[in-house]
Amino acid sequence: MESVFDILAEPNRRAILSLLVSSQQSVGEIERQLRMPQPMVSKHLRVLREAGFVESTVDAQRRLYRLKPEPFQEVDAWLAPFRRFWSAHLDALERHLDRMDPPTASKQKTKKKTRRPNGGRDKGAKK
Amino acid sequence: MESVFDILAEPNRRAILSLLVSSQQSVGEIERQLRMPQPMVSKHLRVLREAGFVESTVDAQRRLYRLKPEPFQEVDAWLAPFRRFWSAHLDALERHLDRMDPPTASKQKTKKKTRRPNGGRDKGAKK
DNA sequence: CCGGAATATACATGTCAAGGTATATAAGAA
DNA sequence: TTCTTATATACCTTGACATGTATATTCCGG
Asked: What are the pLDDT digits (tens) for B49-73?
């Protein structure tokens, strides 16, 4: 149970988190909305709490759980490098499709420089 | 192995993905950089490929793996509602602390009407 | 064709966490 | 007190993977 991704891997936990987006909820409310046995809810909430995804306050016998932002921001941060990649990907796709045009229409002059999307490494020139 | 989060839960898989951000890599290159036994690399790559995180092309005996954007975008999409939450969180916290200011009673025991600090939602009107 | 390199797959093993059931703790209400 | 509600925890079983080892496949060069 190391990373935030371990926590999010569990579907029921993701369901709980989604529930808590709208507002804080008691254990019983979560239990009813997700139709999930109460010990299971409590157990998942414990995991979520220890991972910093939620926090709770006491209201008589109830515990009200609400979201905490930090772990989500951590996921967001992890995603950042890939976000750069996928926005750049549209350009690459564009170039790709450009080279992909129907061969029947015109002669392929691919022999001109053979520019590959390879990033510089030369595929054929091994050894 | 249902969701993208299951895939990302594995640290070695995340490491592989991070490697591939810079450029496509062969299995051997990944193996060396991550100091990980080759069958393990291949197996994780298979999982990543079947989940749509990577794709491969053949280069002689090598397979070159590169990232595909869709699953990352899926994670990003899942994160969206929470992103709204955590940017709004500062305001909410502010208001919360404002109400929390102890004029007389720091007691959170609801002694009277049992009005829950639920934010004004009439959730109890069911049944 | 043979040998070796690069990668994939098959099989066996162990670990860990999710789910279920039962019980414990805690806080009203009567 | 005793009963009831709300939540937490303890124990157990089971199944899913991750890992390691061994082997299969594929490709190239000689």
From this structure: 999 999 999 999 999 999 999 999 9
